[in-house]
Design brief:
By secondary structure, this protein is an alpha/beta fold. 47% of the residues lie in helices and 12% in strands. The chain binds iron/sulfur cluster (SF4).
């Protein structure tokens, strides 16, 4: 798996003042699962160190201006950002982590200044972030500031692993039977994100219109990428747990059922993290040989060593 990043997040000294930063989640954790590919559009064209830039609202148009000398750098910055964004689209990355607040890399709430004024509102998107979104509309995108939120981090990691899985699956020239098998493994993960997407994907795979395989795969891909971009919630995950519980109705005794349902309720009340009911379900899945459940990505969406479901904060 390949993940693109803003270069300064991995310690490259490419910020306007010649500094960088070290984002531990990337440099200590994610790098064990993905090849990290850095991009810094500003350093490429303006060098480092350089005069700071900012986004300015001039006649209702967002321009990139140097802070002190008031030079308009919109065109060169947009050009390099578009070039990099096209490169990113061609490299089949599985996600991108951007530096927050930057006029180039910030994904949201970047300061937008009024012309000749100190007044600003946090409401813009950086030039590079915008270019990546244009070239790769479904690429999982996050910024390091937002990823401090455990819920957003868990959803993002789930998304990049599913994104990578879908693309490597499509590279195998799958048959309709392969698609059904792939879809089956994602049923509950998708259900935990959106019932609407769950139904839409189910309809595509059912193929009642007798569409061609190439069309089905293309429609499925788009709908799947939209589905995994949505966020799960405690309520939706709880709902999935209850669905899975149904598979053990005839296997568990009354005490086991009570304990399992209690773990679901404690998860819902944010007393225990999601990993607690998941571990119990994994145990019963093996014990009662539920092969359909064993392959469900909802139960193991990414390597467990990432420990993202071990915190109560992942739920919202
Ligand atoms: S925020 Fe983006 S443009 Fe600025 S230094 Fe980091 S990578 Fe370069």
């Amino acid at each position: 798996m390949k993940i693109g990043v803003s270069s300064c997040l991995i310690g490259e000294l490419c910020r306007y003042n010649g500094q960088g930063s070290n984002y531990d989640f990337l440099t200590k954790i994610l790098k064990n699962y993905a090849q990290i590919i850095p991009y810094c559009p500003e350093a490429e064209i303006f060098g480092t160190p350089r005069e700071a830039i900012r986004l300015v609202n001039i006649n209702s148009e967002i321009r990139v201006m140097t802070v002190n000398t008031k030079k308009d750098l919109t065109t060169p910055l947009e050009e390099i950002c578009t070039k990099y964004a096209k490169d990113i689209a061609s490299k089949q990355l599985s996600g991108f982590i951007l530096k927050s607040k930057s006029p180039s890399c910030g994904m949201e709430r970047v300061k937008l200044y009024e012309k000749d004024s100190y007044m600003c509102e946090k409401k813009a998107t950086g030039v590079f972030a915008r270019a990546i979104r244009t070239e790769s509309p479904y690429l999982p995108l996050e910024e390091e500031g937002r990823l401090e939120d455990s819920w957003l981090r868990e959803n993002f990691v789930m998304q990049i692993f599913a994104y990578e899985h879908l693309h490597s699956f499509l590279d195998t020239n799958p048959t309709m039977a392969d698609l059904v098998e792939f879809h089956t493994t994602y049923k509950y993960l998708i259900f935990a994100k959106s019932q609407k997407s769950y139904k839409a994907l189910g309809r595509i795979v059912a193929n009642q219109n007798r569409d061609t395989l190439i069309n089905i795969l293309s429609t499925y891909k788009e709908e799947f990428l939209k589905a995994i971009a949505q966020k799960s919630s405690i309520k939706k995950s709880y709902n999935v747990l209850l669905h899975i519980f149904g598979y053990f109705k005839n296997d568990l005794n009354s005490i086991e059922k009570k304990e399992l349902l209690e773990s679901f309720d404690e998860f819902k009340q944010e007393i225990v993290p999601l990993i607690t009911p998941i571990k119990m379900l994994q145990l019963y899945t093996h014990k009662f040989d539920k092969s359909y459940l064993a392959k469900q990505k909802f139960l193991h969406p990414y390597p467990s060593e990432l420990k993202l479901r071990s915190s109560i904060e992942i739920g919202k």
